[in-house]
Amino acid sequence: MLTYKYGVYSEGFVLTLVMMPIIISIIIMLVGSNVARAFSLAGAFSIIRFRSTMGDPKDVAYIFFTMAIGLALGVGFAGYAALFACMLCLIMFVLCRTGFGEKKNTPKLLKIMMPENMDYEGTFDDIFERYTTMHALRRVRTADLGSLLEVQYDILRKKNTSEKSLIDELRCRNGNLTISISMKEEEIV
Fold it and tell me: What is d(CA 154, CA 136) in angstroms, rounded to the nearest whole number?
């Protein structure tokens, strides 16, 4: 979480990184050196991977979790299955309750419409320095038959800064054309 670029990471991925070592160790312990179990498990995992689309990595980890419990029950280790299920459920409950992996600041998508003759490179840098901890140009495209530019930025707003003040300063700079701030598309589920 601390080393991810710009501090923008997936909460589900962070929790998956905690879950997977526990799940894989249980699966390896159950499979052992039994080749038949290994092949049947590989087939079951391939069905998950190629037959379903998952949006959140945590969903895939939970499927592996239930498969590991099913494997433990299938080979006759009901006690291990119950212990494993209780242990991982407790760990996930504590991690979710404590907010482990949550983002401190949510990235947003900033769209600015501007006249096509206005240079978008560097025009808003001083405003971004005051209001954001990170800004990155995402896309530039023309609109209204080339008379306007739509410039999109990924931004992380500084704490204790007003979104309205940011928009007001940008409006003064872009000729009072449309500006929108929204959640990034990959964040919306």
Answer: 5
